[in-house]
Amino acid sequence: MTSRTSRGLPDFPWDSLADHAAKARTHPGGVVDLSIGTPVDPVPELIRHALGTVADEPGYPTTHGTPALREAVVGALARRHGVTGLDPVAVLPTIGSKELVAWLPTLLGLGPGDVVAIPALSYPTYEVGARLAGAAVVRLADGEPPPAGTSLVWLNSPSNPTGRVLPEAQLAQAVADARAVGAVVASDECYLALAWTASPVSVLLPSVNGGSLDGVLAVHSLSKSSSLAGYRAGFVTGAPALVASLLEVRKHAGMIVPRPVQAAITAALNDDAHVAEQRERYRARRDVLLPALTAAGFTVDHSEAGLYLWSTRNGEPAWDTVSWLADRGILAAPGTFYGPTGDRHVRIALTATDSAITTAATRLTS
User: Fold this and answer.
1) CA 162 to CA 167: how far, in whole Å?
2) How far apart are CA 324 and CA 330, in angstroms?
3) Which of 82, 173, 215, 344 has its CA 20 to 30 A from that of 252?
């Protein structure tokens, strides 16, 4: 017997890769898995140290996070992304960003009759979150305004899966369009620190939000920039009233970031050096993999930022490309995981060790 909730959800996309993964594993040199964006590099020592400093605190942590954590968020956003004027009270730590994405429609009180607008190509959990709440989903083409009746609009720049960076003016227009129909704007900014050939901006900037945070939320993760996927470390900030309402519900629901992880988040946000080092690791891997894909006949579209190369092989169907790569011991994600219009692309991740990326490049060009 299954629950009504699970019956309303799509199949987990990566389960459908099992046969291709099995084929890739038969390669004499083993599989190079570039299908997911999980970090492979060590957690910086300063973060591991911070985690241990509060390992002997037996009491419950606060859902709102420590004052030091919230101040660290405000400071990091100012130094790294030019965001100023944030109130630390309007900062809320989350158990990674995925749980916030999945539960945001429910936490906002959305349900049947509401509409959640997501990009045409987007992180699958935006749709999952809407379905969990019982809301309808509409996919928006580039520049398309949300329809009347939309309650929540997801923005994502840099994009997962495409790595596209929206120009500041286009992002501002998207915020204005969402406000015009009375929708909350949720901007997924998990890849903001990983820019390559374009400069992404936060929805928290006045040039984007018109000088007001009303109806605006920004979602951030430390999984990519600080290699903390295993810690489940993220935060949301923006409109004080919205953050306060999320906090109230999360207190009742016990959605609390563990105290040691709160200390780790604080340390990570107070140090920019490790973020710069990690960015350069990914840049170096991109510099190896991108020309190898091009030499193998792929076209890489967008991919101006983030951890993925949005690639097509002569415009062939995505699953054919996945199979071609699997024959060479490389596993990639078909673009169909992210929306119907991704049917001619694959998403290839930079999240593998230096040696694995070199191996993949060699197999592509040999």
Assistant:
1) 15
2) 9
3) 215
Give residue-wise pLDDT tens across range 47-93. 999 999 998 999 999 999 999 999 999 999 999 999 999 999 999 99
Look up residue 113 and give its two tokens. Answer: 């009759």
- How far, CA to CA in Å, does 152 sit from each of 149, 165, 169, 254? 9, 21, 20, 24
Q: Which two tokens stand for residue 210?
A: 């018109």
Q: Is the dihedral of CA 22, 23, 27, 29 positive or negative?
A: negative
- Which pLDDT value is given to residue 164? 97
Q: Record the pTM.
A: 0.94
Q: What is the 3-state secondary structure (H, E, C) of the chain?
A: CCCHHHHCCCCCHHHHHHHHHHHHHCCCCCCEECCCCCCCCCCCHHHHHHHHHCCCCCCCCCCCCCHHHHHHHHHHHHHHHCCCCCCHHHEEEEECCHHHHHHHHHHCCCCCCCEEEEECCCCHHHHHHHHHHCCEEEEECCCCCCCCCEEEEEEECCCCCCCCCCCHHHHHHHHHHHHHCCCEEEEECCCCCCECCCCCCCCCCHHHHCCCCCCEEEEEECCCCCCCHHHCEEEEEECHHHHHHHHHHHHHHCCCCCHHHHHHHHHHHCCCHHHHHHHHHHHHHHHHHHHHHHHCCEEEECCCECCEEEEEECCCCHHHHHHHHHHCCEECEEHHHHCHHHCCCEEEECCCCHHHHHHHHHHHHC
Check residue 17 and give its pLDDT: 86
- Cis, peptide link before residue 10, omega less than 30° from 0: no
